[in-house]
Amino acid sequence: MTGLLAALTLQAGYNATLVTLGAALLGLAAGATGTFLFLRKRALVADAVAHATLPGVGLAFLAMVALGGDGRSLPGLLIGSAVTAGLGLLVMEWIARRTRLAEDAAIGAVLGSFFGLGVVLLTVIQTMSAGRQAGLEGFLLGSTAGMLFQDGLVIAAGGTAAVLATWLLRRPMTLVAFDPGYAAALGYDVRRIDLAMMGLVMAVTVIGLKVVGLILIVAMLIIPTVTARFWTQRAGRVVWIAGAIGGLSGYLGAAISASAPALPTGPIIVLMAAGAFVLSLFFAPVRGVLASALRHRRFQARVHRRQGLLALARHDPIREPFTLRLLRREGLIRPDGVATDRGRAQAARVLREERRWAEARSLHQDTGLTGRYDGLTPIEEVFTPDEIAEIDRRLGRPFAVPGGV
Amino acid sequence: MGAEFVQFSLTPMLIGALAAIACALPGNFLILRRQALIGDAISHVVLPGIVVAFLLTGTVAALPMLIGAAGAAVVAVVLIEGVRRLGRIEPGAAMGVVFTTLFAGGVLLLEQSDTSSVHLDVEHALMGNLESLIWLGASGWGSLADPAALAQLPPELGRMALVAAIIGLLTAVFWRWLKIATFDEGFARTLGIPAAGVGFGLVITSAVAAVAAFDAVGSIIVIAMFICPPAAARLMTNRLGVQVAWSLGFAVLSAVLGYVLAGYGPLWLGATGAVSAAGMIAIVSGVILGLACVYGPHRARQGAAAEPAGR
Where is pLDDT greater, at A13 or A31? Predict the structure, then answer.
């Protein structure tokens, strides 16, 4: 426990601190960037892009060794991975555009065959550099042990650049995500903006290889965004909430992973984000399951209340048990079903509202106004007081609901 | 090409081909139903399923592994559907949330549990190890008629053959249902075909194929086997039966050619050793798909090019 506390407060040593900060930045960048991918409904394209980085890592290693280098320099490997990830992206777009195969088939095809190529290159490297561990397998699931200061710098700089680019491009990307046709009509080059978005996704994927690994980086792009979606309906806020969730998951995940052995960084970070997702799915105030259920329940109660009061006003018997329970609880009817004074008053109000609406609908042919009649919207919200006065004049004088049922 | 071939190459090649067949068969329908990425999701959740099965039984026997992975596939499908409905999220994102989370859980469980005594590690699970499935008991082609040698065949071969046979049988038996439910779900329902059940059965079958093939080629390359041969076949014809036949041909070609290239390719290039056969199989299947994309007679979208109407 003290280990975890130390890691959380960045006291667990140089390397753990580096990894924790790097993971937090990466999470922030991935969450913000992933939002646009999600809004564009292309979440799983990122999966193919991520898997397509593996051959690039292998090729870059081979190239650097052939040039007499060490082969393990992180910037070199990342550039290589970006090249094949971009290639995979282009192949995917080409298949989806040029042939009748759907995008999902293109995603799967690129993902599988590029990963296969990567595995082949890894075996080539294994036989070639016998006795010298290349350690490229660490890119599969992320390996943060023994991360160098330069590596941390690369991740931090890349993450910051990705966040900045997301911020600069947020308006055109939002526009294209919601209405590509309108964006095109405004003069934006939709294809280029899409490419820029995928470029950002690629950048985040490449930066995340070291920390989260290529198999799970897609989770960092998807889960924070989907989670943020439960908290707000506004695209501009989703970006930053997703960034915050991603950053927090990265921070907590890396700290927890540093605090004990056999806790791989990538999976822990993903599980942190998944925990936030599950909590939000059920308890978020805007679109969470609990909030939706409560809203539905309140709506149901309003409908039942109105139907019950109308029945009271018209002296119809009420047999619906939920309606009866509701009216009794509010003291509108007595236990034997007879309306109380308050119940009669409320019933009269509801009936007057109903008659006003009926009159209004016969007066106005404008469905923009009368179309808002759903039995629950108060007429005062739709018509002006003088209009309502005119409706009341036509209805005649008020009336009371007589007692007894 | 004598005794050595039978000993070291025949069984891996057969297993690879059978795995490719078992995956390509359901893959045909997944592609047509635009559910290709269900294959992606399933192949990722195979890992947690196998780990949980191992933790519960303590062995790496075939049956618990199969059940565990199929169970994980069912759990994943149910979760994806639940997340999609409860959270009102588009299916792709729901899938992405569920399978990455389950995969992360699987990796964590695997790292936490003591699997040093058994052959179960993340890399093997991801990449497979086709080359290790050799037939040491063989001494030449004559061993095919020798019961003592046949008894030493790797158990994976029998398992893979059984799974491929079962999937082939299921496809043949439910052919009409699958065909109708795939192309027109509404029409299928009016005929009294349980379309939802057919869809679910297809997913379970894919899961079983993925698990069986997982041993040989690992969980990621399974995706290539699910998608590449059927996708290439889809560009060759407009008839479902012919498409399935093409996909089987492509699957076997990928497996055999991939294995040969992996085993002998480096030697031809003057290098020593061999490269990953599973990876090479995936590459070959990708190349076949690429060729089909460029030269396939039915590669164009319907209506986009001069193509006769109707299928």
Answer: A31
